[in-house]
Specification:
Blueprint: H1 3-19, H2 23-30, H3 42-51, H4 57-70, H5 74-95, H6 100-113, H7 124-145, H8 167-180, H9 185-196, H10 200-207, H11 211-231
Helix pairs in contact: 3-5, 4-5, 5-6, 5-7, 6-7, 6-9, 7-8, 8-11, 10-11
Length: about 230
């Protein structure tokens, strides 16, 4: 595990520790009715959606419901990230890249916020991790293999022998459809930057704006992508 991964995972753990027992956040999470009784700790919610090793259909269904809430709610998205962290760390170890974990985190956020509610995939956590890996790395490999200029445009072609919907291709299609629907290039460039950069802080520094500005823009872009997904 790289030093960067250790530092990032430690930062996430500290952030989560600060959040987990905040009364206002617990009251908000209680309104989702994903657990029985009032929450005393957000870790109880992570456990309810499979974070404690529960791989039952009921836990998967609760995770799907949380992901749907997370399309519009930052706290829900952060809880989903916490649920995915072990899988994202495992993916980063397989990739053997210094910034792999940070890139997967950024990609996972986009995958969560643009999740297509029409998808009926089982094992939602594995699907989201697969989406994050594809967004962070494989789509760039496909672009290079095709000799394309590095832009947000993605190759929409799906394997001819696979008739089943491919969640990774769905994400690629969503970004293509967003461009076709008139989502500004600056917004799509922000998505690309968030996928490539390890943190909101680094994106803000690169754009010479505040982290609050980046988070607000990210929320607006996510809303636009949701609108495109619902209109498709």
């Amino acid at each position: 595990m790289s030093d960067r991964t250790v530092l990032t995972s430690a930062r996430l753990a500290r952030e989560w520790q600060r959040m987990a027992r905040r009364p206002a956040l617990l009251r908000r999470a209680d309104t989702w009715h994903l657990t029985t009784g009032p929450l005393r700790d957000l870790n109880e919610l992570v456990t309810a959606v499979g974070g404690g090793g529960d791989r039952s259909p009921a836990a998967d269904a609760r995770l799907r419901e949380l992901v749907l809430i997370a399309r519009h709610d930052d706290l829900a998205a952060r809880v989903v990230i916490e649920r995915l962290v072990p899988g994202l760390l495992a993916g980063a170890r397989r990739l053997h890249r210094p910034a792999a974990f940070e890139e997967l985190l950024a990609a996972a956020w986009i995958a969560i916020r643009t999740y297509n509610p029409a998808r009926r995939n089982s094992v939602v956590a594995a699907s989201l991790i697969g989406d994050a890996e594809w967004l962070a790395f494989r789509r760039h490999d496909r672009r290079r293999a095709a000799g394309e200029i590095p832009t947000i445009h993605l190759d929409r072609a799906a394997p001819a022998h696979d008739p089943d919907p491919d969640p990774k291709a769905e994400l690629a299609d969503l970004l293509d459809e967003a461009r076709a629907a008139g989502v500004p290039d600056d917004d799509l460039a922000l998505v690309d930057l968030l996928l490539r950069s390890p943190s909101v802080e680094e994106v803000a520094a690169e754009l010479e704006v505040t982290t609050r500005t980046v988070r607000n823009r990210r929320a607006r872009v996510a809303a636009k992508l949701r609108d495109v997904a619902l209109a498709a």
